[in-house]
Design a protein that fits this description.
The chain is built from eight helices and eleven strands. With 266 residues, it is an alpha/beta fold. It binds pyridoxal-5'-phosphate. Pathway: Cofactor biosynthesis; thiamine diphosphate biosynthesis.
Amino acid sequence: MITLPGSRPPCALTIAGSDSGGGAGIQADLKTFAAHGVHGLSAITALTAQHTRGVTAVHVPPVPFLRAQIDACFDDFEIGAVKLGMLASAEVIHAVADALEAYRPPHVVLDPVMVATSGARLLEADALDALRGRLLPLATVLTPNIPEAELLLDARIADSAAADAAVPALRALGAEAVLLKGGHLDEGDEVIDRYADAATRSRYRHRRMDVDGHGTGCTLASAIAANLCLGIGLPEACRAATDYVHDAIRRGYAPGRGSVRVLDHF
Ligand code: PLP
């Protein structure tokens, strides 16, 4: 960690779920923060029993305990950015929104986690309205993948033109900026992530890698939060995070019995 003697490192807080398999969720977030030289804090919304092939059980601790974790972090640390991941239920979303409204951190990166790649539901179906109504207006940047964007917009995104049109439509839901991840879309041998804020529209392009990746969305959002903590501007924080994830997938490895790869964060 690069800090001057006596100075404090920047702190990023992840409010997300735990992945016992170590590939996604809080575990991916803390590795990403560490790789960026940022001190990582965590408030755990849900515990998943999980390996690289799927989720076998989910436990959501009582919401007052989640609030106690968030309060403990804001009571003692200068928090430069908050990353939101798996939020499990509408009740959790309301508690997180209440806390963010009370503490007003400088940046909030919202990864609208809904369903894992393995098919497991990570957000109850009735929580979508709470996510739209309470959290999107608090978000500095929203980072949906294509299926999540389709649920948020209640519209199909089948091709490049639909993805282009989805970006302003997503921004209109309230976040300051949107980074729409293109991995689920067939755009040839490239993956195109589309970024927009009030002033800028960009596309970040990377060569498509033919791998089953796990934890990529969590890693991208926490890399953006780490970059924002380090004082990097929003478009560059997002662009650099897409490069970081691409490299981490390329170096990734399969720690379980199947072919699913987790990222190499370092
Ligand atoms: N488990 C947890 C706790 C998560 O937060 C997430 C995604 O955000 C996942 C699993 C899903 O990861 P993936 O879809 O990359 O397999």
